Amino acid sequence: ETHYWTIDPNNIQQENKKIAEAATLLQAGEVVAFPTETVYGLGADATNSDAVAKIFQAKGRPADNPLIVHVAEKAQIKTYVTEIPQIAEKLIDAFMPGPLTVILKSNQKIASIVTAGLDTIAIRIPDHTVARALIEASGRPLAAPSANTSGKPSPTQAIHVFQDLNQKIAGIVDGGEAGVGVESTVVDCTGELPLILRPGGVTKEEMEAVVGEVLVDQALKQSTEQPKAPGMKYNHYEPDAPLHLIQGDTAFFQAQIDQLISESKKVGVIASEELANELQASHIKQIGTRSDLKTIAKHLYDALRFFNEKEIDIILCETFTDQGVGQAIMNRLQKAATKEIKQ
Ligand code: TXA
Ligand code: MG
Predict the structure, then answer these.
(1) Is the Cβ atom of 211 under 6 angstroms away from ligand 1?
(2) Which residues are recorded as binding L-threonine (predicted)?
(3) Which atom of ligand 1 is nearest to the CA of 184?
(4) Which of 284, 97, 303 is nearest to 181 (CA)?
(5) Mind giving me the DSSP string for 152-187?
(6) Does the interface predicted TM-score (ipTM) exceed 0.90?
(7) Which residue puts its alpha carbon closest to atom 22 of ligand 1?
(8) Which long-range contacts (CB under 8 A, 24 or more apart) does 283-291 make?
């Protein structure tokens, strides 16, 4: 049986009892899904190998893909690392709590199943009252990947977690819709310069304003390179129907739709409100406005799940600039897509 709690993140003081129930399950070595500001996480006590093994089991996650350790306060980060270099310190001070994960040298106090045997550890402080209340109430650091079945889009609502993991986990804490909508930025701070391994909620531009030059893993640009974050090499975020990214103007996009319809295909479209307003199509999912990419990020994963229960043969999706949070949006779309079509 999967316990289900609905918690108001804006009234966390009133939700002590539910938080305590979920925390008790975590202390007992069970896995519980909970909201963060990025996406829902699937948490377990990071100091308990058996508990962490249940995360991999429930998600069907490859064992060589390490997990992020979630803590409630900056002071806790020191407990698990050999040192915090100055650049990491600056990033931590500027962006935590928030959608940033730092990779630091591990002092090996966390079970090796969490780090997949690496000598580094990924740590972040979620900017979400429910997540932090749960970490504090359990008194444990929580290992937590996104709370989806491996390969599926990450969950931004509790219903997404329910669809993927009901009956496979001990509990789901429903704290409403995640605000950012894409995962945290993963930045390796073990070298001379910070190196982005996964673009996310904190942008490269925002980090550069704080620490100067920030590098980006070459594997994010050239698929021939082996990514430095193990998880980045796997298929990800895939809707049930094949997804094609369309890069071109409105007329070009419309021509792609019409061609597929002439082949008797049922076409689903994911588009900004600007493009959606101009297209002729029966099944359009709007995901926000081009003038504010944060609205696109927030609705992206819900849109990638939207057509799953519908009779759709193929999904066409607009492409976006790769500036700012657009870098994370395009990274996820390119991983989810089976094809990119350019004008
Ligand atoms: O926003 C987020 O980060 C969400 C919420 C739940 O906190 N979590 C999340 O976890 O996205 P997950 O497991 O889906 O993605 C973690 C990424 C993977 O690509 C993994 O390979 C990478 O971080 N990673 C973890 N530890 C690492 C390490 N020591 N070195 C390099 N990459 C690491
Ligand atoms: Mg994930």
Answers:
(1) no
(2) 38, 70, 124, 144, 184
(3) 1
(4) 303
(5) SPPPSSHHHHHHHHTTTSSEEEE----SS-SPPEEE
(6) yes
(7) 229
(8) 283/307, 283/310, 283/312, 290/320
pLDDT (tens place) for every residue of the chain, 343 residues total: 999 999 999 999 999 999 999 999 999 999 999 999 999 999 999 999 999 999 999 999 999 999 999 999 999 999 999 999 999 999 999 999 999 999 999 999 999 999 999 999 999 999 999 999 999 999 999 999 999 999 999 999 999 999 999 999 999 999 999 999 999 999 999 999 999 999 999 999 999 999 999 999 999 887 777 889 888 888 789 999 999 999 999 999 999 999 999 999 999 999 999 999 999 999 999 999 999 999 999 999 999 999 998 999 999 999 999 999 999 999 999 999 999 999 9
Of 67, 104, 108, which is best to mutate to test ligand 1, by the most ligand atoms within 8 angstroms of its C-beta?
Answer: 67
State if residue 115 touches ligand 1 by the CB under 6 angstroms criterion: yes
